[in-house]
Amino acid sequence: MRELMTRGWHYPALTALSAALLVLSFPDFDLPYFIWIALVPMLLVIKRSTALEAFLYSLAAGFLFFSGLLSWLSKTGGVNLFNFSLSMLLLASYFGIFGLLAHFFQRKSPFWNAFALPAAWVILEYLRSHIFFLSTSWGILGYSQYSVLPVARIAAFAGVYGISFLIVLVNTVFSEAIEAYRASSRQGVFATEQLHGSWKVLVGLLLTGFLFLFGFSRPSFTQEKDIPAVKVALVQGNVYWDVKRYREDVSYREGVFQKYSDMTLKAAEHRPDLILWPSSSVPGNIPFERMRVAMLSDIAKKTDSFLLVGSSGFDKFRPDQRKTRQLSNSAFLFSPQGRLLGRYDKIRLLPFDEYLPLRGYVKWPSWIAKDMIDSLPGSDKTVFVMDRAMFAVLICWENMFPEQFREMAARGVNFMVSMTNEGFTKVSSGHHQMLAVNVLRAIENHVAIARISSTGVSCVIGPDGRIMNRVQDQGMNDVNVEGCLISSIPLTSERSFYNRYGDWFVAMLAVLLSSVYVGEWIMRSVNRYRGV
Question: Under CATH, which architecture does the 225-500 domain have?
């Protein structure tokens, strides 16, 4: 530890530089090209450090990165400095583990650095997105490229993790190049024989990356006029729910409902096929409250459009709800004739907000979560049917998970709806980071998305990842604004390679990485046995 403290200013400075470049690569800074060099300072520190130093410096880089990226989260209700810092430290632990793995790879077999380091990073990203209630996808490197479509479209083949692989690959090549230059400066020659061998792998993998970029990233369609479409109206009321007033003030609840109703009737003048309201836009419990159902039915009739709304779902005749009295986070579709056609209940709930994990096994302290009534998760992967199209809905948190979106998009739908209530934060960076996730979901599956949010960003995303239209005010602001967007949404039925085969790329990396180092271990064992 004493040696760690005497390294001088440059190691902490390089660590902080990596974190800063990473933060700048994501919304709201939106400087995505910085990501291609962001990890280089951290990789150089790891290369010159002990195992403990590699872990601690990488951990520090991760903590600074996530704290900057998710600073908007610290301003939300129920979050204090302590539990925010603890959450950021948990996320940063994956950086620390990567530092240890990178230190091991560089010491044991530097020849494979250009493959081993990106593969390890991607596997860690995948793991932290699949650890039960601790799963989270914030800060996955691939999301930084949502606005760089030639790169983002790699996701149609290898998912968002394929983009992360290419990013870490390029960073690794740059760090190796810097080390080669340093070696040549010290020795007067370009590099050792081992470094020459390493460069063969680096160049080969870099070419593979360019093949990814130019071979699989071309737009799937270019002529919108040749593609069937439906006209949608996205109603963004810019309503931040006041929970206390919602519970106690009937006039407040009815005022919110009236606002959406008035905006919808105005949007109906454009004769859309489908009108979308955000998640939690309708007060009350549907279909239990018959009066509310009748009011929504009347709106659908007046607009002569399909109407999709978000509300709490409760049906006393359903056995699961009659027994538990729990509410679901639901979407309901009404026909132009006013008939309630179907219901989707949110399947993947947000931990500590919609349910308490490990209830009955763990008593969570109040500084982590207060006791609450769990929402009721859904189980049916509902497909809604209109006259000329089919679509499915994912609500809020569910959009963060590629596999759940992929399963819904594979059910014969022509487009997807991302219904969300982001009234928990007014900070635009949080909204735009969630928008980036939806852009990658559209590309991964080659399916258009109508994204409807209570406070923004509400928009239509094409199957190729282009944001075709969005709700904006006169100042071009798309968050914390009220408005209605009338837009066509393209209909597609042909899904992408990723949609058909899922996270095959991550599985392949895991197999190859294991094979490489098992093979290396066997060869070293054989050589020791032979006395070589």
Answer: 4-Layer Sandwich (3.60)
